[in-house]
Structure formats: structure tokens, C-alpha cells
Amino acid sequence: MTKPPKPKPLLRDADKPVRSRPRKPRDPAQPNLPLDPMPERVEPCLALLKTRPPKGDNWVYEIKWDGYRLSVHIEPTGVRILTRGGHDWTSRFPAIERAAKELPVATAILDGEAVVLDGQGRPDFGLLQQSLGGRGGKKRSSTALFMTFDLLYFDGHDLRNSELGMRRHLLEDLVPAEGQGDIRLSEEIDADGDQLLAGACRHGLEGIIAKRRDAPYRSGRLGDWLKIKCVQSDSFVIVGFERSTVARAGIGRLLLAARKGKKLVYVGGVGTGFNQRNAYELREKLDGLITSMPAASVDRKEAIFVKPKLIAEIEYRAWTDDGKLRHASYKGLRDVQDNAAVYEVD
């Protein structure tokens, strides 16, 4: 299978690839240490959204990958690929499963993101969804790659209490830089955060991730990892739609809501970003959820309300003064098993 090109290097000469800092190889004669039990599942460390990159030498940077967060468990009995919500998607990523079996390790847990790259080597969430058959689909993706950025368990040793620098040292020994297989290394980039963000935005990427160099791996959104985006992209609940006689599949506009405590509040709509395929699949799902009971207060005369079962990934530029999305564009539906967090308003 021909592999898509890697993302263009940032802040470097065009003919020089982005590389992590050189690491010493792992000593194969390391002493025998007591083995730690292998976790059945690890709640992921999540990145906290910030508007600007942090300052200081204790932060390292990576590209932000736009896909599905996964953990790859390499176990004595085989490989398991789990979603962020803990669902087993091994069968849906056969190429990643095969690549995991070929890694030179007996037991391991790799943290990373499944992505599909476009012709310019950029992650494309829509292409990933298409490869899996859309939300609720059961297709097996033959084009998804696994970009791994952390190692939580390695040859019988739980690494979660180790510093990021140590975990990366072992990961880079396991998954070599510049590899072109179905499991690839998300490389650290040694650069000024502001310049790196500007470069990522110029190349059409979603943004960057900043990580504390000396932090252990802590589940949840605690601030050890930060995400800084070029364009805002978040998940919202679809609470209704408006019909159109000219738009694809007759969807003129999706009506969106965010969470506010235990309630849903209307945050505006989106009428762009649909293509021929996803529009008709979406309309079929919407028609099956039509209800007379609105899930959020929506002041739109032509609104057709639906049960709040679908979560859409929406790209947008800003918020209006009255709490509505500006310049919104539809990217696709999140899968329930992906456990995507719906945007919360204050």
C-alpha cells in the first residue's frame, strides 16, 4: 500500500525533515526489575485548551493530530486497540494491529491518534470518518495510520510515574523517527512555541500540543498537556435542522447546542462543510430522530427538532457577543464510542 507523504516540516529548510533531539539508545543489558501488572485500560491524559503557547524550557512541542484518540495494547495474547471511551476497535484498524504485532516488544501500551493523511500529508478528520464508514459505521479502515506520542507500559514496566522525557526515550527506541509504516512516531519539535504555532497554521494544520517535560502521565485534563489551535474546533450536540430546497440532501442548516451544567443551550447553526456523501448520511440519521420536544430553546421559526443523539465536530473562528458560533463549518459526526466531550459554556 502506498503511504501518503508526511506533513511538511515546519520552521526548517524544505529539504530537511523535522527531527526529535538525538537520544542515546536503550541499554539492552539493563538490570532485571520486578514486573508491574499490565493495566486493562488507562484513562487518557487530555490536553487543556489555551490561546497561546506556554513559555519556558520545561515545555516540549508536537503537532496536534486531528483524528481518533486510541491506545494500542500489545499483550502476550495479542493486540487490543481501544478508543478513548474504552471500546475495543481492534477489528476496525487491521493495518495498525498488524504493525503493532511487528514491534520489537513483548508487552506495551502506546498512546496516540489514528489519522488519515491527505495529499499534502495533513491529517483530515473527514477522510478518517469516510474510511470507517461514518458515525456508527462498521467499516475497517485500510488507510488509517497510528501516530504514537507516548508509551505507558513497556516490557512489564508501568511507566506512568516516569517523566515524559524517559517515556519518550523508550518510545523513540521502539518506534524509530521517519518510519513510514502504519505506526509512526509523533516527533517532538524543538522550537519557539509562537513560531511553531504560526508555522503549523501556515501549513493548514489544526494546531500544536505543548507538554511538560518532567511530568508523569496523569489521566484527565490537568494542565500537563496544553493544546493551542489555529482554528477552533469543538464538539456540539445537534438539536435540530432547517430544510432547504437547494442544499445537498435538503439540509439548509444544523442547529447546535453546548452543555451548560445539566442543560443544553443553543449556540447557533452551521450551513457549510457538507459534501455529497456526508449530507445524505446525515439527513437519514436526522429524519429518524425528529421529535416535537426541543432539547434546547431555539428561536428559529423553520426549525425541525431532533433528539439530542448526534454530536458534530464543528470548526469555527470565534464567538459572537450573544454566545453564538461565528464562521462555523461542519467537519463530521463524532462516534459515541469515541467519547468526545461536548463543549461546555460558562
TrEMBL record:
Q: Which InterPro entries match?
A: ATP-dep_DNA_ligase, DNA_ligase_ATP-dep_C, DNA_ligase_ATP-dep_cent, LigD_ligase_dom, NA-bd_OB-fold
Query: Which molecular function term from Gene Ontology is one that the record holds?
Result: ATP binding
Q: Where is the ATP-dependent DNA ligase family profile domain?
A: 137-229
Q: Which region ranges are annotated with the description Disordered? A: 1-39
A biological process from GO: DNA recombination
Q: Which reaction equation describes what this protein catalyses?
A: ATP + (deoxyribonucleotide)n-3'-hydroxyl + 5'-phospho-(deoxyribonucleotide)m = (deoxyribonucleotide)n+m + AMP + diphosphate
Per the UniProt entry, the Enzyme Commission number(s) are: 6.5.1.1
Q: Report the SUPFAM superfamilies cross-referenced here.
A: DNA ligase/mRNA capping enzyme, catalytic domain, Nucleic acid-binding proteins
Name the source's superkingdom: Bacteria
Q: Which Pfam families match?
A: DNA_ligase_A_C, DNA_ligase_A_M
Top enzyme class, one word, equals ligase
Question: What does the UniProt keyword field contain?
Answer: Ligase, Plasmid
Q: What family does this chain come from, according to its entry?
A: Belongs to the ATP-dependent DNA ligase family.
Full protein name: DNA ligase (ATP)
